[in-house]
Fold this protein.
Amino acid sequence: MTTPPSADAAPGTPTVAVLGTGIMGSGMAVSLLRAGLDVRAWNRTRARAEPLASHGATVTDTAAEAVSGADVVLTVLNDGPAVADTLTAATPGLRPGQAWLQCSTVGLDATTDLVHRAAELGLVYLDAPVSGTKEPAEQGALTVFVAGPAEARATAQPVLDAIGRRTVWVGEEPGDATRLKLVANTWVINMVNSVAECLNLAEGLGLDPRLFLDAMKGGPLDTPYLQGKSAAVLSGDLSPSFALSTALKDSRLILDAAEASGVRLDLVAASAERFARAEAAGHGGQDMIATYFAGRAEERDDGGSS
């Protein structure tokens, strides 16, 4: 069935179906609502979408109901299979000509498959992975990499403006935005593991890690990322802005893309091993800086969590 736009939605603004309301999807939905767009939210576990109702979203029981009547379909899911399954579930409510902003990080092979699926359904596919974590998603401050047909920009722009501080139009070939996202995530993945290893080494050498952070503070090698991620570890607050298990998934997508292109990425391979050890020790649902635990002697020895 088709639900009319809410009374709060500004005339002429697109109705957006948000499929997937986890850490990123819920934050993006809040940003869309704050911008005055009509939002219809669906999540496989409905309870995770329900809080959005208090912000003004219409929460639906099925993906097909969410996309029915929407101008833009936005997917924010964990991986390629999850996106493909959700597209199948949504198919009865889809119509040719709808714009599909595919914001999940799914890798190159899955992107190719999804582009084909979109063509079969007559959807206008926009490859649109985002760079950022929970807080930027909630603030509408993400960077969005987009590749897709130029004629779809006008329809997509209000959505992009709502969820992102910056949109980088990579080109018209779907997949190019995903390529750029894999490069950007390579930087993040290696950086977070560098932070973790510095903290590990400081502690192993009998130093208070805060001495290291203070030594870097304000200098050319200091970054808000170093200070913020270190503070999360030292305070014990590992609430996920970007979950470690998701970082592991992305590491593997990067390595697959690198192998296919003839590139060797030693640091990402090592990062993936650290993420895998931390996940096996029970830290997969924590923030990705929990890779810190993969470098602690007690976890190497007995697999336990401190």
Summary: Confidence is low (pLDDT under 50) at residues 1-11, 300-306. The first helix runs from residue 23 to 34. The first strand starts at residue 15 and ends at 19.
